[in-house]
TrEMBL record:
Coiled coil: none annotated. InterPro entries: Cyclin_PHO80-like. Pfam families: Cyclin. This is Cyclin. It comes from the Eukaryota. One of its GO terms (molecular function) is protein kinase binding.
Length: 256
């Protein structure tokens, strides 16, 4: 059963400076769980997925919400770090969709969801370093046709974007070895994945408070519409908060 957000957030709307970490975890897990569910259906339908360095061979048993709670507790995350990580995910999506088809490597793999992925591309599994990996392909990150998150990759992607987000937004952060241990992967792998995200984004990491607030507000609006199906109650809740009209950019978060 999914957790419910606080009455303060429902009544007052999303305010980055005062929203609590528990509410943000609920909102983020609501968003990401729904996106993952939709993309998993595509995998089930086609029995194929694109292999990237973020794939795990098996689907982790821990839920997205529990994983976020673990990361928040063990690495002292603030609410804004999680929202910032969502913004970075959106930018990764935009960047990878812009890659021209002719520059992409065909890296599809057959998979019988939810079974283990039996094949890993030698393109990156044999590379001993990030530099060696990209020397095997190109500098344009051609493994990606969009940045479609699913049950096989969401945990590694979340861990990596949160690691980056805390470093760029907080005065205090941990070594990668700590994030890796908490997240359940090796330090070497996290170092590799961090570089992968940074180069996908071309180090475009600056995010305004306004952008974070807009994203948080958009997720909250969608959450209310989903959790409170009574039209009159939904309208009343949305009207009571400080909601801005959703713009086209904020809508991107629901279409990974």
């Amino acid at each position: 059963m999914q957790s419910r957000i606080s009455s303060d957030l429902l009544k007052g709307g999303f305010k980055l400076e005062s929203v609590n970490i528990k509410d943000v975890i609920i909102l983020a897990s609501f968003l990401l769980t729904n996106i993952v569910r939709n993309n998993d259906l595509k995998i089930i339908s086609t029995q194929k997925t694109n292999l990237t360095p973020f794939n795990s061979k098996t689907i982790p048993k821990i839920s997205i919400e529990s994983y976020l709670e673990r990361l928040a507790q063990k690495t002292d995350l603030n609410a804004d770090v999680i929202i910032l990580a969502i913004v970075l995910l959106i930018r990764c999506k935009s960047r990878t969709l812009a890659i021209k088809d002719e520059n992409k490597v065909q890296n599809e793999c057959s998979v019988e969801y939810p079974n283990e992925i039996q094949f890993f591309s030698s393109t990156y599994s044999s590379a001993e370093s990030y530099t060696a990996f990209h020397s095997l392909i190109t500098s344009e990150n051609p493994l990606y046709s969009g940045f479609f998150i699913n049950s096989y990759n969401i945990h590694r992607i979340l861990l990596t974007t949160i690691t980056i987000a805390q470093k760029i937004s907080s005065d205090f952060f941990y070594k990668n070895s700590c994030y890796a241990k908490v997240g359940g992967i090796s330090t070497t792998e996290l170092n590799f994945l961090e570089m992968e995200i940074l180069f996908i984004l071309k180090f475009n990491l600056y995010v305004t408070k306004s952008e974070q607030t807009n994203i948080g507000t958009a997720i909250l609006r969608k959450y209310i519409e989903s959790q409170y199906p009574n039209p009159l109650k939904t309208i009343r809740l949305i009207s009571s908060g400080t909601f801005k009209k959703a713009d086209s950019k904020s809508k991107e978060i629901f279409t990974f």
